[in-house]
Amino acid sequence: MTSAASDRRQGDRRRSDRRAPPRRGGDAWLGGDSFFDPGWLTVRQEGRGESGDTALARIYRTYAAARAAFGLALVAAQGASNLLGAHTSIALVLLTVAYAGQATALWLLPRFRTLTAARVPAAQRGRQWLATIGVDLFAFGAMHIVESGSSFNYAALLVLPVLMAGVMTQRVLALGTAAGVTLMLLVASWRSGLAAGDVTAQTLQAGLAGAGLFAIVLLSSELAARLVREELAARGSLELARQQAQLNRLVIEEMADGVLVVDDEGRVRAANPAARALLAEIGLCPPAPFELGAREAWTELAQAVARARAEAEWPEAGRDVTLEFGDGMRRTLRMRVRFMRHALPPLAEAGSRPFAVLLLEDVRTAEARLRQEKLAAMGRVSAGIAHEIRNPLAAITQANALLLEDPLEPAQQRLARIVADNAQRLARIVADVMEIAPGGPVAALAIDANAEVSEAAADWAAMAGLALGAGSRLQVELPSQPLGVWFEPEHLRRVLVNLLDNAHRHAGAEAGAIRLRLAAADDNHAQLSVASDGAPIPAEVERYLFEPFFSTRSRGTGLGLYICRELCERYGASIDLHTLAASERARNVFLVTMKRAPLAAVSTPLFPNP
């Protein structure tokens, strides 16, 4: 059953991945439609550094925008200066307008966007430097030389390209840029010093400015290198965290136990497929988020969560909670509660209470697993005992047969018959035990379940004396095409005969009291069901149905259903009992889920389709 449940969860995840739209907004931070939805398995390219949206890239784009704004500001300043009556040279005006046009075009026009992109090819890096830092050096240097005698200090504008050279380029190139600007300042100061007759003071001032530019380059280069190192470390840590989160979510999604994350308002923020299967009467409940009090069947579960929050503690072993689905359908869950704090600091600082993490397990599954562990050792012991019983039992049977060959008194004849009948019964028990005894690996065969089930059902109906047809007590529904499964033909026949015998004993005498159906469940599984209209199986009996030596009949061996389960597990199949609603006629349904297999040849079923 565990294998089938896992396969159903995988199929549901595939369907959810195809149907579920991406979510945005308040709930998306907990995983969108489902916290454990497989969509989170897709690693975002940004986490791998492939988007190139780094801090340096953002600085460069900001620099491009600042150049455009600064160029427009220079043009506006020149216009205001002319309006106020100040004299501005034509060369300076043309230079300012040209610079503003180039900076604005580089920032706005799409054809130049590659020069301000986050990542550019190595062949374009020179063009990128020339289009931004190079143009700034030329423009601001020319402005300083043209207006060297004015009161406005254009030399201060050279700090911007020198700073960006330290941030965006290699250190050698950045130092070269600072050296070039310093030489230009020294030449300009020497010329202005000659005109003013104060060469020493002008040169000293330019030298100090050049020293400051070198300091700016070294500091900005070091800060940029540190920024890159920290960003790479942060991206690496983020990638590791994402991988760990993916691993954790994958493990939780594949867990057989249900996991629910409930906030302090009773809203389920996350649910794995196992939990969704436990909360639904049939199939899966809707994916998270949803309200825990939205359905009447979940009332006791919602009350238990509220009680756990109020008590702020919960027993380590958990407590049992019963879900009432109506029509007598109920499911008892063992609920364990753990608490986790909010991951987002704003929520934690707001004083909101922690999330409640519910670990849900079907009580029947837990008890069955415990019994299975106890029965495993007993099965090995029973197989050994059965093997040792064979020889003395054969001797008893042979001696009794020889005794029956002689004329006996009626009383002795009756006693000998009793010995023969019980010896035969013991022989059947020994054969059953030996058949399910642990052995070597079993090779599954790709068989046509349609043909095998058809032939086995026809043989069983003949032995049971049931007429075939529309008015028969046995109604069979088979697919119109061959259906390949992984099984062994004789073992599949044994499973089917045991289920039909069980239905024959408890079903009514009316037509259609027993229903046999074979169909493809999906692309990977096929289902064989045997339903009967007998009285519902009590809960105290249902939990022991598949245990060995448990029988409600005085002369039953209690091995029939146990053998069915053991044979199914050999081939990766599962068998389970489903009790349908009271409105259904055939309420008791034994469902066998098998793995589908490709067929090499087409076979023809012997049992007629109704």
Topology readout:
Blueprint: H1 2-19, H2 55-83, H3 90-108, H4 125-146, H5 159-168, H6 171-196, H7 199-253, E1 258-262, E2 267-271, H8 273-278, E3 290-291, H9 299-311, E4 319-326, E5 329-340, H10 345-349, E6 355-362, H11 363-405, H12 410-435, E7 445-448, H13 449-464, E8 474-477, E9 484-487, H14 489-506, E10 514-520, E11 525-532, H15 539-542, H16 560-570, E12 574-579, E13 588-595
Parallel strand pairs: 8-10
Antiparallel strand pairs: 1-2, 1-6, 2-3, 4-5, 5-6, 7-9, 10-11, 11-13, 12-13
Helix pairs in contact: 2-3, 3-4, 4-5, 4-6, 5-6, 5-7, 6-7, 11-12, 13-14, 14-16
Structural class, judged by helices and strands? alpha+beta
Q: Pick out the low-confidence regions.
A: 1-51, 343-351
Number of helices: 16
Spell the H/E element sequence. Answer: HHHHHHHEEHEHEEHEHHEHEEHEEHHEE
Helicity, as a percent range: 40-55%
Shape designation: rod-shaped
Instruction: Please report the total strand number as a whole number.
Output: 13
Distance between the termini: 30 Å
Strand order of the largest sheet: 3-2-1-6-5-4
Indicate the mean pLDDT: 76
* Radius of gyration over all CA atoms, rounded: 42 Å
Strand percentage: 5-15%
Characterize the biggest β-sheet.
6 strands, antiparallel
Would you give an account of this structure?
The protein has 16 helices and 13 strands. The longest helix has 55 residues. It is rod-shaped and about 155 Å long. The N terminus is likely disordered. The protein has a six-stranded antiparallel β-sheet. The chain has a five-stranded mixed β-sheet with strand order 8-10-11-13-12, with helices on both faces. A two-stranded antiparallel ribbon has the order 7-9. 53% of the residues lie in helices and 13% in strands. It has 610 residues and is an alpha+beta fold.
